[in-house]
Amino acid sequence: MRGEAQRDGLGAPAAGQLDLVEGHLRTQQRQAQAVHGREHRVIPAQLFFGGDAALHGQAELHGDVDAQAKLGSQRGLQLDLPVLEAVQVEDRLPVVGLGCGQRRELKHVHTDQQPGVRVIAGREKNGLLPARQDDLRRALEDIQRKALGVERGLGVVDGPAGIVHGDGPQNTLGRAGGGGQVLGQLCRQARMIVLQDQGMAADNLPSNHAAQDKRPAGPMTGPRTHRRIAGMRSPWAATVLLVLCAATAADDAAVTVRQEPITFPVVANKPRANWSAPAAQRLSGKDSYTTTAVILENQYLKVTVLPQLGGRVMSAVFKPTGREMFWQNRQLSDNVPWMPGGARFSFPFHEHGRHYDETAGYVIVRGADRSATVAVDMRFEQFMTAAELNRYGRATNLQLRQYITLRPGRASFTYAARVENPTPIRLGFKLWFLARYDNVAGTMPILPAAATTGHGAPSLDPWPAWGGVDHGTTGDWADSRFAVGIQHDFGGFYHPKDGVNHLLLASHTAAPGAKLVIYKSGPERGYYEVWRGNHEVFEETGRLLPALCSHRMDVECFVAPRIGKADYANQHAAMRVDLSAPGTARVALFPLHPLAGAKLHVGDKPAVAVDAAPDRPFMQDIACDEARPRVRLLAADGTVLVDQQFPLEVGPMPQEQFQRVQERVKGTFAGGRGLFAEAMPLPTEHWLTLPRYRKELLATAEQSNDLAELNDTALRLLQLPGTDEAVMTTTAKALTIDAKDPRANLQRAMALLQAGQDEQAMGHLEHARSLPGGLYLYAMQHFRRGGMQDAVRALQALVAMPIDAGDGPAAALLTPGAAATWQGPKLMLAGMLQAQGRKAESEAALRAILADDPACTEAYELLGDKASLTTLYEGNEPGRKSVERALGEIRDMRWRGIGRPQ
Length: 902
Hints:
about 900 residues, 42 strands, Immunoglobulin-like, 7-stranded antiparallel beta sheet, 9-stranded antiparallel beta sheet, Serine Threonine Protein Phosphatase 5, Tetratricopeptide repeat, alpha+beta, globular
């Protein structure tokens, strides 16, 4: 598989293997042995790994010719490393640097951050000191990754500034002025990487290549290979740099990806009295359906994604135990989307808003960290009809991207959704994530909240006990509960019988909605549900996404076995802290990635060493006499992984937050029914939406003389069909109040452009350039008039603008997690640069777009990336047509309107 690291039989310690190479290379202090003066030295050395705390041993240096390192671990692993490298750095004390092809990864490494974490020893007396672990790990991984790309034998890898030397206390790894090239040379059996300061080797080596050792590669314990540095004035003058490298361990292997067909039985769904949903065309009359499954796999997880069925994650298996993460139901109903198990995002309708006739394109993307992402692109323009404005409708002007990512060495995967607003105006929406878990009696919900409410927010109830019932354990009760005022990011269920937590993480600021659905216990009743959303309660109005911006919600999913019920979880670990025994804290820790050399602090007691991995959780009783101790978990380099007091504080009863939720449910907040209707997505059940508010909008347009109210009314009328005349009248009234008002001018220009009156629109766009939407349309029109340079400058100014959060009551409904990504303007800028023949600039702009959004089909089209377009268009004709329309707008520089339900 492209990008996949090679295995060498070294893996997790439990299987007699090494854990993830942390890349922390340390040579402690030099000990001279007087053999012919300085010709022979023995240097104690340590090579740090993730699972074994370290390999310990010594390196013997014989003159300036060769060196051999013999290392061993406490677990009995013995490793002989042949030649490494000795480098003279004039008369200075040790100067250490590992460079890589991506200099930006190393730019934050300074020498004065904290004791023992220095990169350049300067005038230190203790010899080589360790650089920051993460930075060295990334550097070493990058070098190994490139070197492992060599097909056979020895290979040369070039990169910037490998060994940095200088006097300044602020020197950083990767600094161009540090003097040199990184030359990485790998002997596949000997597993050797040579780092050399090109500035010190000017005599015999070419400027960009190291001389290659032509001897055949030997085994790990075979003959010593060496590389003498040309130009050394005196061997071992004052400083020796010893670089030890082992093969990439199994925990650091690239994520594997494979695609295979998967077939599901299709069943006819039973009709219900209170609603109906027609059968999906691609399932109607069929008894089975075959689609493509993309399977992502690392050493801990196997994740199955169905990109052509809306990006659903069908299954995720924790490989060390074989535990399935989600409830499984391997069949499809012919008309509703909720029957299969797994996890998915619900959009544009907030509750099960999926349809099997929705199509999706996808592309598989490899990350620099050897991760793999299934990036999914979904468009909904084909559903802009009146029939799609009811429950389970898909009518929306917005686009949905999804990214399912698995990284090497992690026992979790991330499932992210990005809602893209390609229009020049703000739009309302709701976005919810759903995961389903097995229904097992005695399951314990994990919801770190002080209070919950039901559908429609009728009352605020303490969690987990209210109404005389303890809801902390499932049984003979059922309910659907929304957390109010949640202050933590984790949630899920704990299965006591199996001792497994099923957890997910989502930012409580970007996703303040947290919902549990619990049915009466029993496998015949199917599943439990965990939801996360960008607002608190289904029935309230939605949130507003500003013009040309995006909203992103990231969810991380995992299981955490063998620690008891989790009290806390973040992106590093799930943790239980049991304080029930006097004077003792029993701390159980499930790390989401291997930990070596970590330290656990409980209260003011001495730190406890932690050596753990996802297949080796940590548990220990620690002396503790505090009622609510602070627990901190620190990585080997001092990075704080967990810092939390236990028992966890979930806050007081959130009365004020609940009052605001109720106002948003009833439409009694500032902005009233009009703002409620605007922020509500077009497809809904019985709640107020813009199509249902049409008569009131027309009445307001006729009666009002308030500028802000007229602007809001015109904005809402723009989103409805058959309102062109009303928009013209409303914007004309607004402009009589203030002829230079940016919002009135933008909305007037939009109405004129949709009517094909481009010349009249241009004058209004001159007064709307302070708004992102106005500047976007202005640049487009200016380009069409021949003002290419001015148009490019306008777009360059636009992408530096902040979000237009709106003014008045609408600002309070700005969606959390909104970002000024400006994808539409950036695509247009790339198109303009192409039209001017500035190919390199255009390509750079498009690559930057894809780095931010790897599912942006328009960028692949403009790049001419036919390979990626194959899966983006396979079975996705509506998506292809949507992209064609967008590209036509870019190439013709003619705005096609926002799209309105017909």
